[in-house]
Amino acid sequence: MQLANRLQPLRTNVFADMDRAKARARALGRDVIDLSLGSSDLPTPPHVLEAIAQSLPDPSTHGYLLFHGTRAFREAAAQWYTQKFSIAVDPETEVLPLVGSQEGTAHLPLAVLNPGDFALLLDPGYPSHAGGVYLAGGQIYPMPLRAENGFLPVFDDVPPPVLAQARMMVLSYPHNPTAAIAPLSFFQQAVEFCQRHDLVLVHDFPYADLHFSATPPPSVLQADPQKRCSIEFFTMSKSYNMGGFRVGYAIGNAELILALRQVKAAVDFNQYRGILNGAIAALTGPQDTVQTVVDTFRQRRDVFLSALHRIGWAVPIPHTAMYVWAKLPEPWGDRSVDFCTQLVEATGVAVSPGAGFGKSGEGYVRFALVHDSAILETAVDHIASFLTQ
């Protein structure tokens, strides 16, 4: 069977590769401790589940849900953004519900890029950012992220011939996989750069709440309050532990929102209305559960880093997200895939190879802190035995 050429760059990705390695480990009888996927193990808040449960017997929630039927959710999202970032948002023209923020980053290139256009992406970066560009027939220019630059890209390093063909830039801070933070001044620089070169500025913002310092991460819209060139994606997966419910939204430039809405209309309808009712309850209800999430991941981070340091693996302290981005010890320095596949098959501990997030991720691994502290300490014990083999 002859399949489309656009599938070629999508044949492998970091999560699928590690899934196969985990399957081999289980076949060998290993109990797998999975630290490779950033899927929270914490429960969805009870008041969110109650809102969904109350929707189930209501037959008016059982049919297709079109855009205008999502007004209450869009209003809740706009209100949440205004309260959190002091940004005025029009729920009718500047908000779009999504099936998780990944839908937005994967589909927006279809609305922005023509075949052959460039997208400027972070390297390392989240795989779906590249996937959407490939599906749109675009080209990728990877912007390397280096520790000495705080894992922030250097915009002036993008070659002029690439900029002449570029149509969009995708950022994501707090960053997955490095857990780096970008200050507001960085986003102001990014907005100025994108306006100067006529680029759409896309910001994937799933970790807006998951930070461990007194200063919260900024929204890109704080640097572009008129929404001249920017669009931002938020998901309910991290702050509210609703990953399996697949709820997110886009906020930003009205023209971009309409363009993404047109793509979305060709692909799907919206989620079940009851799920959006749960998302409304999350955004408008008590936020103490969000602080519980933050406190839990901070405590896990501290336990995990203490255990790594105890076995001689020095790792900088991350101040956001649910990840530890660790430079590999010798002799594994440029063999992250080998390290991860051999580690899981030998010990059952699964982590993500840095190379799976881009060329500049080689030499690192990403640990997702999605188990309780006792299991994390057990994982480090297994890692220690592997490193001393």
- Principal-axes geometry comes out as globular
Find the structural class using helix and strand composition.
Answer: alpha/beta
- The sequence of SSEs as H and E is HEHHEHEHEHEHEHEHEHHHEHEEEH
**Helicity level:** 40-55%
Report how far apart the termini are: 46 Å
Helical segment tally?
A: 14
Strand content: 5-15%
Computed CA radius of gyration, to the nearest angstrom: 21 Å
Number of strands: 12
Across the major sheet, the strand order is 2-8-7-6-5-3-4
Biggest sheet statistics: 7 strands, mixed
Q: Overall mean pLDDT score?
A: 95
**Uncertain runs:** none
Core attributes:
389 residues, alpha/beta, 7-stranded mixed sheet, 12 strands, 14% strand
Describe the structure.
The protein has 389 residues and is of the alpha/beta class. It is built from 14 helices and twelve strands. Helix 8 (220-223) links the parallel strand 6 and strand 7 (230-235). Helix 2 packs antiparallel against helix 11 and helix 4 packs parallel to helix 5.
What does the secondary structure layout of this molecule look like, with pairings?
Blueprint: H1 14-27, E1 33-34, H2 46-55, H3 71-85, E2 95-98, H4 101-112, E3 118-123, H5 127-135, E4 139-144, H6 160-165, E5 166-171, H7 184-196, E6 200-204, H8 220-223, E7 230-235, H9 236-239, E8 248-252, H10 254-267, H11 273-284, H12 288-310, E9 323-327, H13 336-347, E10 349-350, E11 352-353, E12 364-368, H14 373-387
Parallel strand pairs: 1-10, 3-4, 3-5, 5-6, 6-7
Antiparallel strand pairs: 2-8, 7-8, 9-12, 11-12
Helix pairs in contact: 1-13, 2-11, 3-11, 4-5, 4-10, 12-14
